[in-house]
Amino acid sequence: MSAPADMPEKAYDHSQIELKWHTRWENADFYKAAKDSAKPKFYVLEMLPYPSGTLHIGHIRNYAIGDALARYKWMRGYNVLHPMGWDAFGLPAENAAIANQVPPREWTLRNIAAMKKTHRRFAFSYDWDREIATCEPEYYRWNQWFFLQMFRRGLAYRKKALVNWCPKCATVLANEQVVEGCCWRHDDTPVEQRALEQWFLKITDYADQLLDDMAQLEGGWPERVLAMQRNWIGRSEGTEVDFGLSDGGPISGPPIHVFTTRVDTIYGATCVILAPEHPLNERLLDASGVARAKAMVDTRAGRDPGDIEKEGFFTGRFAVNPYSGEKVPVWVGNFVLMGYGTGAIMAVPAHDERDFEFCTKYGIPVRPVIRPVDGPLEADPRQAFTEDGVVENSGEWSSLPSAEARGKMSAYAEQQGFGKAAVTYRIKDWGISRQRYWGTPIPIIHCPACGVVPVPEDQLPVVLPGHVEITGTGRSPLEQVPEFVNVVCPCCGAPARRETDTMDTFIDSSWYFYRYCDPHNDRMPFDPAEVAYWFEIDQYIGGVEHAILHLIYSRFFTKVMRDIGLVRNSEPARRLFTQGMVIAEGAKMSKSKGNVVGADMLAERFGADTARMFVLFAAPPEKEVDWRNEGAEGIYRFLGRVYRFVTRNLGRDDFPPPGEADRRVIRKLHQTLKKITGDFETRWHFNTCISSIMELVNVLYAEERDISSEAMCTVVEHLALMLAPFAPYVSQEIWDENGNEGPVFKQPWPSFDPELAKEDLAEIVVQVNGKLRGRIHMSFGTSEPELAAAAKADEKVRPFLEGKQVVKTIAVLDKLVNFVVR
RNA sequence: GCGGGCGUGGCGAAAUUGGCAGACGCGCUGGAUUUAGGUUCCAGUUCCCGCAAGGGAGUGGAGGUUCAAGUCCUCUCGCCCGCACCA
Asked: Residues A753-759: what's their mean pLDDT?
């Protein structure tokens, strides 16, 4: 049916509608959160952005998901906390400073202002009174405070260590920030190893807790993220064994510590291999050997381990297997990692693939000591047998199963004093020193007399100086600022030097969500009572790229804060949702490709409502979305369809009296409500929520001239309410045009009536041998035999039964009849 | 190699508990409105045969369980993501 010609219909003008409400909402405080014991609380949080200067469609997707949920929860009567802030420290600001001669602070604040404007344009429902920017002293003083608490507890410490150095960033990186041997921000730049005095946080003290507490997250966090964290922590149980050094005479000097998960194979160890960086090499090797070892380290840097052939050389020295007393040669091998276990291994070529490859290359003997449970010992193996089995040729341990042997042999080592059961972790302590300007100063003073002295808490914050020359070369820019560096020692008053390293910016984001609970507190990082009310975060939403960076650091911080007594929870977020990426026209968005879909362009061309709604419509939120302009135009058309429908029906005076059409429309309305409500409560498939609203609108178009004034009013009102979480502007406009008052997204969420949602008759699918042959309509609750009888009588079905014998009849209440015929 | 996930029309997808495969949207085709284009409205659109009524095939592939499988089981192929010489 075409649009009635006599009705004035308004064209959908997104810019006019959005501007109108944007102006009216500017100073409204709809989203302010405050403690309220009368309502259940709900803390919904999207990961805070880095203020790069512009929002793109990927951000919009993240916020659109959070916003839909926040608005829904408000409408369901929850007391919602929905804050936003800025991860404002970091290198791009310094790079911009070098490129454009703009101070990092100025550049950052300008970007924040621009992005906040875009945020507001999209009408995301944040409590802006709780906004934080991590580069402000009011915020980062608490980074310093946390650092001091950790320092006091021995959780922050300084050591000289080989660290990852990115030449492009001119700073150190944490292990988590090294991706395939390269810098996480420069995937073409291999990291170098440098020995530097660095500050570390002892995340390894919490390794077991980080692992064990994942049980609490099971079900609420994506399995993939938990798996990645488990993998990253890399807990591995085994045995540490000491091989004493001996060159024929008595054992002398410190032993070589070896870590193995397979002590049951130790009688098959035919050599000991040291990592090329192993400190013992200095003692065991002559000058040319040391040089060879160093060359190995250098050729390994930044390369894919799979591409490097195993190489090594004999040190000329021997070590003694403490179980067998056997003397085995000591080698240096390029495949032995200093960073894992003890940096030294025993090589058991018969039972380890890597050892097999190495030993056969150099003619080192292969000696099998494990036989399969159901077979004999392989005398001359062609490949390593790496499974558990039965121990053989191993003195008193022979004929024990592998697992049992491991337990007994570990205990024996401990009893004899040459080893012990041990657990190693892949995760290392978190290196937080950065030789950069735009970060939190580490609150430490180096005094020639007193050593490393923490800045007293009442002298916090240690403020970042404002005018600093940033050249991007050489050492930390802060070293060039005498008034920052030169201080007096808080202990003895003598001249001293301030620490010039700044903190990794992941410190900032490790606890920011607690600050939102009490953002203006100047006596503490936050009032524990506020946090106790709002925590845990009920729903955290962000990209999966933070699975082992931000998300593991912030879990660690929460546990430390709990141990300090600031919080009661052990985990920050009960539920985590990782949304899929947005790509543009089939290609990953990137600046270099020039295909970044910017948020302001979208607001201009399609409107905020359309842009938000399309990213929710294009795919379920966990999946990748391909942004396509034609797709967005579909949503634009749909919103226009809704808007025109509402406006052309509002002033009508020719409505028919209530009738059958009313029942059909109201039924569809309640079916739609049921579907959307169910999705918000469980799986968030907003794409199907939106498509169900489209179905409703299609029905409205079909029934437009046949429904009563009352039905029209009800349905328009509900349309506005259902669209409110997805498209706040146009739903508010409809709400308003319909004569309703107040903000639509602060109305109670409409409840659906299951009776009204129900069809009059059940549609029964009739199958013959599993093939669809007809449909019949019967009252709900009709008994199975009656269904079968009616189905058999159906004229579409009958031909398929004629001349056949019905051997079985399956009838399912209100659903289906299936005849099995022969 | 280990871990996590995914394969359904021309495209994005839907099918929530084993019960009508392809909802909804894009694109395309046709019609109406329009001087025309665009907009809007209506209809059609998995593939094959057929004017149609209708029939057959069909969810990466091969088997299996079942009255009934996109959904469960076994094997297999392909793709994506994460980790990876971790002793």
From this structure: 91
For residue A137, give the H/E element and its range. Answer: helix A137-152
Nearest-nucleotide field for A772 (CA, C1'): B20
Separation of alpha carbons A482 and A480, rounded Å: 6
Say whether A399 sits in a helix, a strand or coil: coil
Which ranges constitute the DSSP H helices of A336-401? 353-362
Nearest nucleotide (CA of A358 to C1'): B85
Sign of the alpha-carbon dihedral angle for A622, A626, A632, A634:
negative
Mean per-residue pLDDT for A714-721? 96
Residues A73, A423: contact at Cβ < 8 Å? Answer: no
| pTM of the predicted structure, to 2 decimals | 0.93
List, in sequence order, every beta strand (DSSP E) within A3-142: 41-46, 79-81, 85-86, 132-133
- Taking the CA of residue A562 and the C1' sugar atom of nucleotide B47, their distance in angstroms comes to 62
Query: d(Cα A648, Cα A623) in Å, to the nearest integer?
Result: 38
Predicted confidence (pLDDT) per residue in A574-617, tens digit:
999 999 999 887 778 877 778 889 999 999 999 999 999 999 99
Which helix (H) or strand (E) is A451 found in, with range?
strand A451-454
SS3 A218: strand
Let me know: does A372 contact A357? Beta carbons within 8 Å.
no
Q: Which pLDDT score is estimated for A476?
A: 80
Convert the pLDDT of each residue in A364-388 to its tens digit: 999 999 998 888 888 888 889 988 9
Judge whether residue A6 has pLDDT over 70.
no
Which residues is A152 bridged to in the sheet? none
Q: Is the pLDDT of residue A518 over 60?
A: yes
| Cβ proximity of A81 and A519 under 8 Å | no
**Structure-token pair, residue A87:** 């991860």
Q: Nearest residue to B69, CA vs C1'? A: A770
Which pLDDT belongs to residue A160? 86
The mean pLDDT value of chain A amounts to 91
Helices (H) and strands (E) in chain A, counts: 26, 34
Q: What tokens were used for A448?
A: 């020639």
Q: Which of residues 541-600 of A touch strand B (CB under 7 A)?
A: 544, 547-548
Interatomic CA distance for residues A315 and A121, integer angstroms: 69
Length of chain A: 822
Q: Which residue has the higher pLDDT, A548 or A715?
A: A715
Query: A646-692 pLDDT, tens per residue?
Result: 999 988 888 999 999 999 999 999 999 999 999 999 999 999 999 99
Q: Which nucleotides of B are covered by protein (CB under 7 A)?
A: 3-5, 12-16, 19-21, 23-27, 32-33, 39-43, 55-56, 67-69, 81-87
Residue A461: is the preceding peptide bond cis (ω within 30°)?
A: yes
Residue A1 has pLDDT above 60, yes or no: no
- Report chain A's terminal Cα–Cα distance, integer Å: 49
Q: Whole-angstrom Cα distance, residue A698 to residue A570? A: 49
Single out the residue of A3, A22, A1 nearest to residue A649, CA to CA: A3
Per residue in A312-363, pLDDT tens?
999 999 999 999 999 999 999 999 998 899 999 999 999 999 999 999 999 9
Report residue A182 CA to chain centroid gap: 21
Name the DSSP letter for residue A606. T
**Would you say the C-alpha torsion A556, A562, A565, A568 has a positive or negative sign?**
positive
Question: Tokens 């040190």 sit at which residue?
Answer: A315
Give yes or no for a contact between A358 and A366, defined as CB atoms under 8 angstroms apart: no
| A140 neighbors A105 (Cβ within 8 angstroms) | no
Rounded, the Å distance between the CA of A177 and C1' of B45 is 51
* CA dist., res. A94 & res. A102, Å (int): 9
> Is the bond into A192 cis (omega within 30 degrees of 0)?
no
Q: Is A646 helix (H, G, I), strand (E, B) or coil?
A: helix
pLDDT at A219: 86
Spatial contact of A556 and A209, defined as CB atoms under 8 Å apart: no
